[in-house]
Amino acid sequence: MPHFFTRSAAAAAVFTLFGHHVSQAHAQASTQLDDVTITSRALGNAALLVPAQQLSGAALTQRQGSTLGETLDNLPGIANSSFGPNVGRPVIRGMEGDRVRILQNSGANLDVSGLSSDHAVPIDPLTTERIEVLRGPAALLYSGGAMGGVVNVIDNRIARERAFDAPGGVMGKAEVRAGGAANERSTGAMVEAGNDQLALHVDAFDRSTQHLRVPKDMSCISGMATTPNGRRVCNSASDSQGGAVGGTLLFDRGYLGLSASEYRSTYGTVAEPTVSIGMLRRHQVMEGLLRDVGAFENLKFQLGHTNYTHTEYEGAAAGTRFDNQGRDFRLEGRQQALRLTNGMQLDGTIGLQRESNDLQAEGAEKFVGPSRTQSAALFTYQALKTSWGQFSAGARTEAVSVALREDFGGNVAQTQKFNPFSVGLGVMRNLRGGESQNGWQISSHFSANQRAPKDYELFAHGPHVATAAYEVGNASIGLEKATQFDVGGEWQQGGHKFGVTAFSSHFANYISQQPTGAYRLADGSPGTTADLPVYNFEGVRARFYGIESTAKVRMAGGQDAVLTRNAAHGNMDLELRADVVHAQDLTHNSPLPRIAPMRLGADAVWSRNAWGARLGFMHAAAQNRVPDNGASPGVTTAANTLWNAALNFHTHSGPTHWLLFAKLDNITNKLAYSSTSVLTQTMGSNAPPLAGRSLKVGAQVSF
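Now predict its structure.
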């Protein structure tokens, strides 16, 4: 792969974007910024059965953060497992880490972000087209162990349908943004060109941030020394670049495409004032689809290869290094629709998937030995449409082997084998008459999930600075098992909408870290209360339950005869959202750690012609349900209310669209802490709070 993803890549792509002539054919079908609700691998109306959320278009642009977790944070049921401003994975319904599967274009995203809280996900929202969250039976297409859900990050590096006619054309997008509490400076660009037989894609981004500004005085603590750092979080700056090239051959019965991408990032780890992480990920993908193959409407395959490495630097000296090489293969077939009696229709997908990755850690602070994880899976998802609604069912069986390749931490080299099996059922009752979108729609989902333990849950043995603990794996631990159920309803009447979902998850064997009361030095020898507490991985019984709700009230504008008299002043909506999750370790009768509190949010959203504005707040209740940290009580978080506002202007000239936007977050500069961040528990009074008042502005142009 050409090594051209440097600081100048984004600027070069922007120049390319404006230097090409736009064909007349494409000028008649210009890029739109409207939000489109799409669910991954939707089977006709099967999207009705998937309790999914998505971000795309202008909504994604305006919510975009520096991490995937920050971008999705505060969507109903989703929080951010923040490790400072540079690292954040989504937490869904209280579940984090490897219980949330992160995909890229429906393929495996092989990194080590699940291994440690300070390891970033090597995906940047700047080059993302849309983000989808899947739960229910459809999630079994991708994972049986994703009890929280599946997050699918989608780009267009491989074109899956024709965007140009025979004469060909060019389209693209460029974006710049600046400001915020971390003084962000970022640029991103994408260019696509081709005709009805060939599509080419190039994208690149560059992002840099300074130390995060917060509403309190902070210090840099190193050993016995404490250095004041003003109202900035110590060691929280970052510098990231990346990009990709892709090409696709398009033909009447399908396509065949290749893409290669690179992601580089250097960022401070926040927990240690002199330690930074240098990350590099290279990823290559081949993907193809063939239509009308016997009993299948189409067959699709995907083959990926990933080289990932990151090094933890102590000052300028290289320290612990993690290398992960992974391969994944996926083959799936969309069945021809089977039309049954009484207007019923059966749609479905079946397929197989295989993944393999080799993890190697070297250095004084490695806490896992060299390992190899291999898995093979068969899966299916079926949807039966009826005149009154729909049934769905999914199943997935896997064979997983996790091998410790050499003696480590008291464990001899060994291979543990697991055979997880997961099933899911769903039903939707549509009470809306005919083609009307008004009225109620009721849905419910049940699943029995199993997850094979990860290498670190089996074989970890060493000091883990990110969690301030000495972690010890359990080679005899069994499958994680959960039974999950949710029921919800959605109502719509014109511009008014309301939805609510209640969920419950019961774990017969929830793999968690439990304090032992012992302490060790970094070399593993016995320590005192001033040293690292020892945490063992252990299977416990656990229970999660909660409620998510959203509503939109059309205060003025269209779709209601009473309100249209105010339409000259634009549309005004009141958007409401709320969620709460309760999580308990039933074995030890203790709360589970890092759970978001009850949250309530409201936004007044106005739009008129090219203008749009938003003013609202998110209130987080106090989180007092925290487990003990060994011999000491856990750290609670106080209630807070964060106000925010946004303004955008959208215009176009011919095929060129402009979006100008500004965001003002934490308007009152409120001091607040995240209950889902491990740093809140481990760093005491010097834990980084959420960002202070910040203004970020940006512009996006597309054609």
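Confidence is low (pLDDT under 50) at residues 1-49, 561-565.
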